[in-house]
Amino acid sequence: MTVCAPSPPTTGTGNDGSGDSERTERSVSAPGCVLTADGAYAARLALAGESWFPERWTLDGPEPYAVPLPGNQPEEPGTEVLPLADGRVLIHRLAADRHLFSLLYPTGPGTGELPLGAVGCLGGDAELRLLPPSPRGDQAYALAVGRSSTVVWLVAGGTFGPERLAEVPGRCSGGVWLDSAGRLLALDRESDGRTKTVVVDLGRDGEVSPLLQIAEGSDDRLLLADPDSGLLLIRSDAPSPGEDRLGWGILGSTLPVRFPECLRLPDHRLTPFAIQPGQILTPESCGVALSVEGEAGTWVGLWRPADRRLHHLPAPEGWLTGSGLWSREGVLRLPYATRAVACGVAWVGAPWEGEAEAGTAGASGSPAEASASAMASGSASAMAMASGSAMASGSVESPGVQASEVAPTAADAPAAVAAPRPVPLQQAPLEGRVAAQAGCG
C-alpha cells in the first residue's frame, strides 16, 4: 500500500439543498447515519431527487437541524461520511484504485472542501472502509482489508495526510473502541476458518493481543462496548454451535460470558447499536438499544443485563435505522427524517422492571407531551416517546409494530460448551460455573 500525495485545498460550491425533494437514508447494511461519540453531530448521505449528497446534523442545540454539504457533482451511493467533533464531515470517495479523503464544512451558501490525501494501490480484492467515530472526536480511522493482512489507517487528524498505523495478520472486520482515549481498537479477525476478536493497541505501534476466545471452535465477535462500565455485547455460536447468539460480558471481569434467552428470537436479527454511558460501577444497569429485524419489519428493542426481558417498541417513522445514542440519564435519542420533518430526533424513555416512571421527551431537554404505549404483556411500566424537530413537532407516528415484552422461557444461565477456554477478558470459562447472579444473562 502507498499513500498518494494530497492535492492543494480547494473550496467547492453546490446547491443549497432546498426544495420539496424527499430525503431518505441509504438502503445499505450500515447505519442510516453516523453520530459522533458525544452525540453533538451526525452525518449521512441524503437524497435529493436522484442525487446523493452529504448532510450534517447538529444535535446539541435547542433543536436539531440539518446542513446540506453538496459538492460540485452528486456522490456515489456507496460514499462514506463521518462527523468530527468540530462539526466538519469526513468524506471517503472511491476513484479508480484510489480512496480519496476530504473534510467538508459549510461556507455560506456553498460547501468548503479540504482534501486530506488518498490511499491507493490496495490491490487484488482488498477493500477499505471507515471505522466508527473515535471517542476523541478529532481523528478518523479506516480499515484496509487485504488477502492476508489488515491495515489500520489514520485518515484525518494526523500530522500530514493519511498515515499507516498498524498491520494486523489476517482478514479483519468490525471495529469497536474499548477506551475513551481512542487507543484500544477491537477487531474481529478471521484465521484458520474461525473468527476471534483481538485488540490492537495503537499506542504501542499496533501491538495485537487476544480479547475473545470463548471456545476453541466458536466464532466470537465483539459488536459494541462501553468504555465507562466495560459492558461488552458479543455475538458467538459457542453456546449453540451453528447458531449465532447475543451475549454480554464485562471487560476485565472474572464473571463468565452470558447468553440471555430473552435475546434469542427465532427468525429475527438483533443488532445492538447503543449502550447507556456513565454507569461506571454498575454495568448491569446499562441500557442497551437494539435494532430488531424480522418479516414484520424493523423496530427497536430495549434491554439491560439486570432484567430478564426485552422491551419492544415501534421505531419512529423515518428512523435512520441502526442509529441512536443514550444519554447518561437513560434517555434514548433516535434520529429520523420524513417528507414533513427533514431533521428530527425522537426521545425515548425506557422503564425497567420495578420502575413506573415514563421517559420525558423534547429536543430542548424540557418535559413535553409524550405518547405512552402500555406493554402488551400487561406490565404496569410504559414507554414514552415524542419528537423534536427543526421543522415540526408532535408525537411520532407508529409504523404499526405493537410494543410488547418478551419474557424468556428458560432460566438465563451461562452457556456450557464442550471445551472450556479461558477468555483473555479475565472472564471465567463457561463450563462448570454455577450462575448465582440474578437477572437476564
Walk me through this protein's architecture.
The protein has 441 residues and is mainly β. Helices cover 0% and strands 42% of the residues. Strands 1, 2, 7, 8, 9 and 10 form a six-stranded antiparallel β-sheet that branches. The protein has a five-stranded antiparallel β-sheet with strand order 22-23-24-25-31, with no helix packed on it. A five-stranded antiparallel β-sheet has the order 26-27-28-30-29, with no helix packed on it. Strand 20 and strand 21 form a beta hairpin. The protein is globular, with a radius of gyration of 22 Å.
Brief digest:
The protein is an all-beta fold and 441 residues long.
Structural class of the helix and strand makeup? mainly beta
Tell me the distance between the termini: 44 Å
Low-confidence stretches: 1-29, 356-423, 425-441
Mean pLDDT: 77
Helix content: under 10%
Number of strands: 31
Amount of beta strand = 35-45%
Computed CA radius of gyration, to the nearest angstrom: 22 Å
Shape: globular
**Given the structure, what is the number of helices?**
0
Major sheet details = 6 strands, antiparallel
